[in-house]
Amino acid sequence: MQILQSVTTAVVLGLTLPSALSRVFNVEVGPDQAFHPPFISAARRGDSITFTFQFTPKISHSVTQSTFCQPCEHLQTRNSFDSGASGATFTVAVPDARPIYAFSSVGDDCHKGMVFAVNVDQEKYNEFQQRALDQLLVVWYASLLQ
């Protein structure tokens, strides 16, 4: 009987412990065209990220999933996310410990550096943001060629 009780307790703890260890990261989405904080360095499976959009008349933002190599393009997969233009809040579940990249797809926010990343360090975030800024130059140069 003691063994059965111990096994039952272990199973119950195993089912409830992961959710008890889940964390919620809060990110403010700017009126200053920025995510605060701009990156999260250690999210894991089961965590969630809640984006809170700061209301400012005539200014909207989004949080749209992208890739490191194409920071200002919406990742078009079955599980990618896009909040659409500013709601009050938007929550993303962290599926695993791999990096997640996102940007604001409203207007030229991304080309001005409004990007966000998960499971990266400062150096990788800076490189990702620079890629977004550099894309503005590519878009501008391409418009000159037309």
UniProtKB/TrEMBL annotation:
Residues 1-22 form the signal peptide. This is Extracellular serine-rich protein. Keywords: Signal. It comes from the Eukaryota. InterPro entries: Cupredoxin (IPR008972), Ser-rich/MCO-related (IPR052953). Gene3D superfamilies: Cupredoxins - blue copper proteins (2.60.40.420). It comes from Amanita muscaria (strain Koide BX008).
